[in-house]
Design a protein that fits this description.
The protein is α/β, with parallel strands linked by helices. The chain folds into 3 domains: about 110 residues, Tetrapyrrole methylase, N-terminal domain (Cobalt-precorrin-4 Transmethylase, domain 1), CATH 3.40.1010.10; about 110 residues, Methyltransferase, Cobalt-precorrin-4 Transmethylase, Domain 2, CATH 3.30.950.10; about 45 residues. About 45% of the residues lie in helices and about 15% in strands. The strands form 2 sheets. It has a 5-stranded parallel beta sheet, with helices on both faces. Strands 6-7-10-8-9 form a 5-stranded mixed beta sheet.
Length: about 280
């Protein structure tokens, strides 16, 4: 392996199947002076499997800022440091951003060691467009916040990726149905690369029913949601405006059309302004 001096390595680790780790990642984990990880007990199992002896230190959301100086001190002394999460690529809905940012501001090189990522793995088997997508992380846990959050993406044409915990999966899918409608395509992936790996694609209404009937609200869950079809949204908005314009006007018309078409109010205003020209 090429020798690197005083650098922070951001190392991707398996999301399930241990053999998915790269030779370069293993070489890096074995050669650095110490390892900062989300859960030392979890990471030690990975190290033990590959017969790697390494010093580990915890870095989590609750202590990340307090660990920054510790990492910088080691780098300043000429040590190589690796950063890993429990699974997948660090910083992706995991701790590490503050440390990486601090290291770069301090003038230290940050070296990515790419590998597994639940976001990319889920997208690759979803059958939905991947030329443009957005990753939105974990969905807010409370219903009111969740619905408000999801409404931001009603007319987004990109494929959307979300993480969700299994005990909130059904409630979240119910809100996806309320906000996006029953027919928007959704894909649930869970336990990717593990024994009980599951990928199920269906309109959101059917996906919710499948999760309930098949008791699929278990394991690590990633939800991929179809982006808004701009042509269908346009036809829907125009059709509803034509039906309601003789009965409603102004804000009342905009509010009703927005709710019926599952689109932003701004989208309705744009169509109304276009028609008035």
């Amino acid at each position: 392996m090429t020798s690197y001096m005083s650098k922070l390595f951001v190392v991707a680790t398996p999301i399930g199947h241990l053999e998915d780790i790269s030779p370069r990642a293993l070489a890096t984990l074995a050669s650095v002076d110490c390892l900062f990880c989300e859960n030392p007990n979890h990471t030690k199992k990975l190290l033990y499997h590959f017969k790697i002896k390494q010093s580990t230190f915890q870095i989590a959301d609750f202590n990340e800022k307090n660990k920054i100086q510790q990492v910088l001190d080691r780098l300043d002394c000429g040590q190589n440091v690796a950063l890993v999460s429990d699974a997948g690529t660090p910083l992706i809905s995991d701790p590490g951003y503050a440390i990486v940012n601090a290291c770069m501001h301090a003038g230290h090189d940050v070296i990515p060691i790419p590998g597994p990522s639940a976001v990319i793995a889920a997208l690759s088997c979803s059958g939905l467009p991947t030329n443009r997508f957005s990753f939105e992380g974990f969905i807010p846990p409370k219903r009111t916040q969740r619905q408000h959050f999801l409404k931001e993406f009603i007319s987004d044409p990109r494929t959307m990726v979300f993480y969700e915990s299994p005990h909130r999966l059904i409630e979240s899918l119910e809100d996806f149905c309320r906000v996006f409608g029953l027919m928007r395509i959704g894909v649930l992936t869970r336990e990717l690369t593990k024994i009980h790996e599951t990928v199920h694609r269906a309109p959101l209404g059917q996906l919710l029913q499948w999760v309930i009937e098949q008791k699929q609200a278990i394991g690590e869950c990633t939800l991929i949601i179809q982006g808004a079809d701009e042509i269908l949204v346009k036809h829907s908005v125009v059709s509803v405006i034509e039906i309601l314009k003789d009965h409603l006007s102004g804000k009342n018309l905009v509010n009703v059309v927005s709710q019926l078409c599952h689109c932003r109010k701004q989208t309705v205003y744009e169509f109304l302004n276009h028609q008035s020209k």
